[in-house]
Fold this sequence. Notes:
The chain has 382 residues and is of the alpha/beta class. It folds into two domains: 3-256, Alpha-Beta Barrel (TIM Barrel), CATH 3.20.20; 304-376, Arc Repressor Mutant, subunit A (Orthogonal Bundle). The protein contains 15 helices and 14 strands. Strands 7-8-6-5-4-3-2-1-9 form a nine-stranded mixed β-sheet, sandwiched between helices. A three-stranded antiparallel β-sheet has the order 10-11-12, with no helix packed on it. Strands 13-14 form a two-stranded antiparallel ribbon.
Amino acid sequence: MPGIYIHIPFCKQACSYCNFHFSTLIKYREPVLRALAAEIHLRKNYLDEKGNVPQVSSIYFGGGTPSLLSGGELGKLLSDVYRDFRVAPDAEITLEANADDLDEKKFSELQAAGVNRLSIGVQSFFDEDLRLLKRIHSGDQAYRAVAGALAAGFENLSVDLIYGIPSLSHERWEQNLMKVISLGIPHLSCYALTVEPKTELSYRVKKNKAELPGDEHTAQQFTMLMQLAKEKKYLHYEISNFCLEGHYARHNSSYWKREHYLGIGPSAHSYNGRSRQWNVAGNMTYVRSIEKGIIPCEKEELTSRQKYNEYIMTSLRTMWGCSPAFIRENYGSNIFNTFIAEVKKISGSGMLSEKDDTFFLTEKGKLFADKIISDLFQLHEN
């Protein structure tokens, strides 16, 4: 079922590695919130399918730092969504949260607003790592936030961790993972630290003021992650995501399964199966346009080649795999034949496995996922 993403474009400070759209000018919070509410109403028909409004199964507050908002502000935005969309009774309503925003009072506010799932950006439980990443919270604060969320009744809980940090040894990486696992956290998202353009980390690397570990070091930490997750009965259902049985993230899973979704807010993306569109990444430009009743976005109609490439990119990253039969049925024989020819080149490498006419990345293949996926892309229209 479709989902709704709401981008909250504010942060207290910039993390050194982040290139998502945000602003530290919190004084523009009120006009942006009014614009978000207005866009929800303006786009109430986006998810319509031939006049039938589908049920929304997930609502996701991302950012930025959505936990900067009060329970009242979040509740107002949720009431706007419920006003204009059919929301499933058991909808997953997720809020990305920073550890420094969370305490007993905040947990109560979030629950009263209707939030039933938290995704806590821990990144590391070690202060040295957090200082390098320019996170505001401390390691102790992160642990208390996660434990406090569980105590407050947030059973549907996810934690973000980062590996490949210059100061993160293999021993510390294992300790980070075991802290989360020992708490019984049902969902875990783990990402390799990458140098994104126009970030402080990028600047520091270019000026030789910071040096990331080599690929082999980072790959070893990813391998440790896969092995420990398997040992502790976590399903590796997507390259960066692990969960206990029954705790898949609906929002994330719908993206990888190419479900339709509506993105609200500056820089937010939307997808309806035929096209993609993305809002302008500028808070006040976004606000002024919405005030005129205009959605400030660019739009791209997807060709068969683009749809195929997106299918390869999303399906091969998951435990559900990539189906040749689906490719033949949906993208035609020319694309199918090229796909099969490329798969044959890879099949002897031990990076792909096949079961029930579906291809999957092996653990070895997951280390080279981006390369394998790019090799299977179609570069030209047939």
